[in-house]
Amino acid sequence: QVHLVESGGGSVQPGGSLRLSCAASGSPVSFVTMGWYRQAPGKQRELVAIITRGGMPNYAGSVKGRFTISGDNAKNTVYLQMNSLKPEDTAVYYCLFNLNTWGQGTQVTVSS
Fold first, then answer.
1. Are strands 10-12 and 106-110 parallel, antiparallel or unpaired?
2. pLDDT in tens, 35-47
3. 59 contact partners, CB below 8 Å, separation of at least 6
4. Cα-based angle 37, 66, 76 (whole degrees, multiple of 5)
5. What sign results for the dihedral spanned by CA atoms 69, 72, 73, 75?
6. 3-state class of 99 per DSSP?
7. Measuring CA to CA, which residue among 15, 95, 19, 82 is closest to residue 50?
8. CA angle, residues 17, 50, 81, in degrees to nearest 5
9. What's the 3-state SS for 37-70?
10. pLDDT in tens, 31-88
């Protein structure tokens, strides 16, 4: 069984930065894909970014150029560096492991 631990959420002013982390543990655990989704109040959960073990990232158009996803294969950890944050980025961010295991979510709030 895979266990995911997310960290790095918080509150920031527009234009600020945050870095999210998601570490997978369990036995056995090996990631093929890991990604980040987000859900704002009253909206559906949406893809933010996803990366394969081979390092191929994909981004939602709304975050391309501002967010960077990266993975550490040895640590089964994925990171999301979020720069130039906007109020519309406010949401609960969820990690998804191998397309079948969700993290508990971490709140990101962008407000002045």
1. parallel
2. 999 999 999 999 9
3. 48, 49, 67, 69
4. 50
5. negative
6. coil
7. 95
8. 15
9. EEECCCCCCEEEEEEECCCCEEECCCCCCCEEEE
10. 789 999 999 999 999 999 999 888 789 999 999 999 999 988 888 899 999 999 999 9
